[in-house]
Amino acid sequence: MELTDAEIIEKVLLRGSGFEGGKQRIVDFFSEEHTAKEKADFLKNVYGTGGSSVTFSDDLSGFENHDSKGITIDLYKTDKEIHLSWAKVASGIDALIDNGKYFEPRYKNDNPPTRKAVYQPTLFDINYAENDIVHENYNKLMKIAPGILNGRYRYMKLKAPGFMDLVIEKLYENRISLSHYYEQNGDLMSDPDMELIVDQNQKTLTAATFQQDNMAIYHEAYQGDELINPDLEDELNDFLKDWLSNIARQGHIVYKAYYSEDIDEENEEPTFDDKGHEILIEEPSETDDLLDIEQKDLHEKINYQFSPEDEIGIGGLKTKFRANVEAIKTLKVIEAENRMATDKEQSILARYVGWGGMPQAFDVGASGWSNEYSELKKLLSQEEYDSAKASTPNAHYTSSVVIHSIYQALNQFGFKKGNILEPSLGVGNFFSHLPESMNKSKLFGVELDDVSGHIARQLYQKAQIQVKGYEETQFEDNFFDVAIGNVPFGNYKVYDRLYDKHNFMIHDYFFTKTLDKVRPGGIIAFVTSKGTMDKKDQAVRKYIAERAELIGAIRLPNTAFKENANTDVTADILFLKKRERRSVELPTWLSVSDNENGVPVNQYFIDHPHMMLGEMVFDERMFGRDSRYTTCINTDSNFNLEEALSEAASHLQAEIGYFEQAKKEDSNDIPADPKYKNYSYAFIDDKLYYRDNSIMRRMDYTGKTLERIQGMMAIRDITREIITLQTEGCTKESLEKAQDQLNQIYGAFVKDYDYITSRPNASAFRDDNDYPLLCSLEVENEDHHVTKADMFTKRTIKPYESITDVDSAFEALTASLNEKGMVDIPFMAELYDEEPEVIIKELEQDIYLNPEKYDENDA
Prior knowledge:
By secondary structure, the chain is α+β, with helices and mostly antiparallel strands. The protein folds into six domains: about 5-100, no CATH class; about 125-295, no CATH class; about 310-390, no CATH class; about 400-585 and about 640-650, Vaccinia Virus protein VP39 (Rossmann fold, 3-Layer(aba) Sandwich); about 700-790, no CATH class; about 810-859, no CATH class. A seven-stranded antiparallel beta sheet has the order 10-9-8-7-6-5-13, with helices on both faces. A hairpin with a 5-residue loop joins strand 3 (about 70-75) and strand 4 (about 80-85). The chain is globular. Residues about 105-130, about 260-300, about 660-665 and about 850-859 have low confidence and may be disordered.
């Protein structure tokens, strides 16, 4: 009988988080009073990142993968994939708990069980039992690392003089890894690395996979829990036996160990070996204590600084592939240990250069890349793998010389500190080259790729980095002083309701959105495709020119990204200064003209040939003699890109503009943080500040005035929370809980300082943008009697509900314009449940086709 999606989902949820005692912790947390969001966040942390095979029935199996975005169920032998957000997972588990299906019994210390359950072996276990070597290997590892097998530790590092370090790590419920590591040319190599299956009931240890980096070897005896190669299993078990014997003789001792998150140190039950003898678990050694101190030191956040010794982006594709893999392995260890990277680990992470120009690594049939393909499939989750594969056309990382020229220009413009945005961060190469003279700036980054974004967070621990698409960010307008970066190139668009009407390509979209996010007088310095300046269609240039002054542009030769990104592309560095108000005057750089050789090029470069680091020609090498595709080449054998960029940048002249009030900045002011609303009060490090655009101004209020501000800030914050809860569709219980808090905070404030609308309170708090909101909490009648508004006791906001279906094509059109800001026929077809041709026919008086055209420079 075919299983429904609901039955498949239920089976996955009933498995729990994969950690011992995990379901009980979930039940405990869910039995407390928590919002739906808190439950979702809790599950995201409890599950972490991982996955395993799942058997749903005799003829249906699959793979369950979980990460920060939720749970994905991939059903084998079908194209079906089920994705659950953590909010949906929380809702499903809530229902299972309510129905009594989810509960996992737990014995309290004061009420122990009187007897142990009798274990009934399965056929899988019996096969193990017939093989003495898996028992022997279990006992050997128990003598070497009992803390891993009994669950006390989740990670152990052992050392022996004259031998390679040994690392043993719990991967998930019944899997551990055993590996030797050494360094080769700055890379961490595993030699070997084995995944082992542990059965605590039968006390067996069997080999599942074998990897040896220096020989580029990877073998699987098991896929998930399924045995696929019995002969290889026997061979690997024999090897494991010899390996464990050698380790025991070498005298490895524990150098580093991290407690399992599931351990209850005070109430641990004794552990027994296969002969019934109790195994005594030693207390942490002095080295453990020292390592605990080392762990605490890691909480001091550090930002990575570029060092030539790290050799970032150097070498061929295989070298870059290896650097990427070692960076990902290092990242996974760091995140599994729930800590920040050390400076040494940052050097490994910084070598990650992405997958741009490396499609072979994702092609199962690519000659000479089969080992790399297999390694990558094993290393990445399916979501990470798909994201990495999709990035191969445009995930190119910017060279140091290009970045240095941008900072040179910013320094010439007078920029010293402020809020810096990098909206296409990668792993943060621009941040790594931040000059010492600008290091008091606050850094903000955005990166779509999951792996790159998480590496960037480890490299720039003091920065605020969002791992999502730029179109999903909610930065305030006019906030950033400077925006820098290498924006994505490509002939595609992203959905952003506010900007969809312009119909710009991805690189042009980054300009349009960033122009809103940078403040008047602020600077944008972007590396972009030559199409932004050279395409015949002037629309994006006109849009930019109305809102920003072109300080200047530098055209790069098509070899500028060859070494570190393996791509021949002609790109420009554009320097823009945002205007105070829109301009109606159209500058000459909107135009494209033919140069003396008949090649179309932007008028700016015709007028400023010294800003073009090469010659514009038709690319006959790539596209033949009739090519109309243009490129910038430099045939000078003595050409030096770094020197040429420095010379070109020296011609750029501008002065970064500041708001008038910013010129009055004193030493107590700090750059603003977008998590605080503009024109509102905030406490930072126990000091009162007022956000004034891009600056947090230190306020020197004392006494009763300071107390009034503190009290009204508390009322403001709980009021905002109540609004958010209602907007998101909260439960009655969570709303009433927040309203109780509001009543208590408000009542205590009024008792000491009078009503919010009283003159002293108005004088103290009227500069806060939310003071009118606070005033709305009080209702004053004709007799000046003040009562509480409905916010204290009632639901006052109806949550937004998205439209899922409509009854006519016109209703679908209205929904599309409201939701997407454009005529989106596929979206309308989903709502109206009709073929696109039918919708177009019904709306023939209301919509029309956009004229189609093609121009190779439009990309």
